[in-house]
């Protein structure tokens, strides 16, 4: 299964609402996860099951979708949200990641 | 608190072998699927392998099949990745990671700090 994220990068300001899209080459039902990675750090799980918020993660993050198209939305960007975001399917091994979306400060 | 501590990363020559280890603590290691994920310098994440909680099932990305072997020792709360016939494309930080739910496959909720493998002649 191939996972494609768009855009590959974006620039935004604190307080902006942004959406990242992840498309799967075949249906992964809702076995779709989102991770955040800041430079030099290990990734952090944000969302699982396409729309379930991981414990301890801010409610400004939300996820939606099923089948082949998914979105991650950040409702109001905060300084700590500038990072790279990855989707990953866990429907069928190998559990492919998307190529990542880098969110930079405008 | 879940902790995953990888070790074993090194500089290795093309065609060589290396064994990575990961020590888990703060959770019941034997109950969880464990994963290896790697990240080449400046690149994205690549899922490499998983092993089920009891070691009965293993999966690999195609690029490492036949060269890498994942294993675990539940008596020692340890995960391993035996790497053989390495190539330049295997240069990466290798992360050990824990499945989110026991006795199942799926999302990853905890990661180690990573160990660097450099393939260089």
Task: List the SSEs and their pairings.
The complex is a heterodimer of chains A (106) and B (121).
Chain A (H helix, E strand, L loop, with lengths): L2 E4 L2 E4 L5 E7 L7 E6 L6 E5 L3 E2 L7 E6 L2 E6 L9 E6 L11 E5 L1
Parallel strand pairs in A: 2-10
Antiparallel strand pairs in A: 1-3, 3-8, 4-5, 4-9, 5-6, 7-8, 9-10
Chain B lengths: L2 E5 L3 E2 L5 E8 L8 E6 L5 E7 L6 E3 L7 E6 L4 E6 L8 E8 L8 E4 L3 E5 L2
Which terms would index this structure?
A: 106 residues, mainly beta, six-stranded mixed β-sheet, 48% strand, B: mainly beta, four-stranded antiparallel β-sheet, globular
Would you kindly provide a written description of the structure presented here, covering whatever features stand out?
The complex is a heterodimer of chains A (106) and B (121). Chain A has 106 residues and is mainly beta. The termini of chain A are far apart. Chain A has no helices and 10 strands. Helices cover 0% and strands 48% of the residues of chain A. In chain A, strand 5 and strand 6 (52-53) form a beta hairpin. In chain A, the strands form 2 sheets. Chain A has a 6-stranded mixed sheet, with no helix packed on it. Chain A has strands at residues 3-6, 9-12, 18-24, 32-37, 44-48, 52-53, 61-66, 69-74, 84-89, 101-105. Chain A is globular. The model of chain A has no long low-confidence stretch (mean pLDDT 97). Chain B has 121 residues and is an all-beta fold. Helix content of chain B is 0%, strand content 50%. Chain B is built from no helices and 11 strands. The interface between A and B is medium-sized, with 23 and 22 residues.
């Amino acid at each position: 299964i191939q996972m494609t994220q768009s855009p590959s990068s974006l620039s935004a300001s604190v307080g902006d609402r942004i959406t990242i899209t992840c498309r799967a080459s075949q249906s992964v039902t809702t076995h779709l996860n989102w991770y955040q990675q800041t430079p030099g750090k290990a990734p952090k799980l944000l969302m699982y099951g396409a729309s379930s918020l991981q414990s301890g993660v801010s409610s400004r993050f939300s996820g939606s979708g099923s089948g082949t198209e998914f979105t991650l939305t950040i409702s109001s960007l905060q300084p700590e949200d500038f990072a790279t975001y990855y989707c990953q399917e866990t429907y069928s091994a190998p559990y492919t990641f998307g190529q990542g979306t880098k969110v930079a400060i405008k | 608190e879940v902790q995953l501590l990888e070790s074993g990363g090194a500089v290795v020559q093309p065609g060589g072998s290396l064994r990575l280890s990961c020590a888990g603590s703060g959770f019941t290691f034997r109950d969880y699927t464990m994963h290896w994920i790697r990240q080449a310098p400046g690149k994205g994440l690549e899922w490499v392998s998983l092993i089920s909680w009891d070691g009965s099932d293993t999966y690999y990305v195609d690029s490492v099949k036949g060269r890498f072997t994942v294993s675990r020792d539940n008596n020692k709360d340890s995960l391993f990745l035996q790497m053989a016939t390495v190539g330049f494309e295997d240069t990466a930080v290798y992360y050990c990671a824990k499945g989110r739910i026991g006795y199942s496959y799926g999302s990853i909720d905890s990661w180690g700090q990573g160990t660097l493998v450099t393939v260089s002649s």
